[in-house]
Specification:
Blueprint: H1 5-11, E1 16-21, H2 26-33, E2 39-45, H3 55-65, E3 73-77, H4 87-96, E4 101-104, H5 110-119, H6 135-138, H7 143-153, E5 155-160, H8 163-167, H9 169-173, E6 180-183, H10 185-191, H11 203-218, E7 222-226, H12 230-239, E8 243-248, H13 249-264
Parallel strand pairs: 1-2, 1-8, 2-3, 3-4, 4-5, 5-6, 6-7, 7-8
Helix pairs in contact: 2-3
């Protein structure tokens, strides 16, 4: 398979809905990945989630990619943020694990975005090294085929989450090879001096979010955003966001248990 669900959705200009993987374990991730035909991607969160970047993300990706051609795209958010210099080896680990795309948190300037794109691509387009004996197996292709198509089909994403990123969003969005600018409303709110969204963002933060969306589309890139409910996700889809997180594994599990227990004691009557 040389393509994947998120890539196909973005290429077709269809809204790509996803879910956040915060809990470790292949079985947990596979249950999420098989939960809905409307799911295009899952984000294995190695920044704030409990999955370790190296072996942990690889095991989850292998579990998900065995589902079939219509499987969701396993993506990885690396632990290191764009404000530090240690993102390169983490991107290598995530892509060697078979990730269909990587997300780097808190990217603040075009220079860092260019470095990230280079780390995601084999020469001569970039500086990614080759050598992992299992990566092509996670894509269900030969080594030769993987080397031929990886540069084209890996989705490269950066998060706009701080004041510097907002100030430099025009330059970041103009970086060649970058696919998605993904808004993290929680850290964005905190870094702009506003409370985090519970559940909705502050009106002033909303103005910034809409400005990022406009710039991203004007520069020909896709714009993503983290939501915590289907209601929020529907609203963002109506606004034109291309890639939208709907829920998380831990959040959905907690909500479902609470809802069923509420019904069990008669509080839904």
């Amino acid at each position: 398979m040389t393509s994947h669900a998120l890539y196909r959705a973005l290429e077709a200009s269809k809204t790509a809905f996803g879910a956040w993987i915060t809990l470790p374990g292949a079985h947990n991730a596979r249950i999420v990945a098989q939960s809905s035909p409307h799911l295009s991607w899952v984000m294995i969160d190695c920044e704030h989630g409990l999955t370790p970047l190296s072996a942990g993300s690889a095991e989850i990706i292998q579990a998900i990619t065995g589902i079939g051609f219509s499987d969701v795209s396993p993506l990885v958010r690396i632990p290191a943020t764009g404000t530090c210099s240690s993102t390169s080896w983490m991107i290598k680990y995530a892509l060697d694990a078979g990730a269909r795309g990587i997300l780097v948190p808190m990217v603040s300037n075009p220079e860092k975005a260019k470095e990230i794109v280079s780390d995601c691509r084999f020469p001569p387009a970039g500086r990614r090294g080759f050598g992992n004996p299992l990566t092509h197996l996670a894509w269900n292709v030969s080594v030769v085929d993987y080397l031929n198509f990886a540069n084209n089909f890996i989705t490269i994403m950066v998060q706009i989450e701080n004041k510097e990123g907002v100030e430099n969003v025009e330059g970041i969005a103009a970086v060649d090879g970058l696919d998605v600018l993904f808004i993290g409303p929680y850290d964005l709110s905190l870094n702009l001096g506003y409370p985090p969204p519970f559940p909705d963002v502050h009106p002033e933060v909303e103005k910034v979010i809409q400005a990022i969306l406009e710039v991203t589309h004007r520069k020909g890139k896709k714009c993503g955003i983290f939501c915590s409910s289907g209601t929020q996700a529907f609203q963002r889809a109506q606004q034109g966001f291309d890639m939208i997180n709907v829920t998380s594994d831990s959040g959905a599990m907690s909500e479902a248990i609470a809802s069923n227990l509420k019904a069990a004691v008669g509080q839904n009557v």
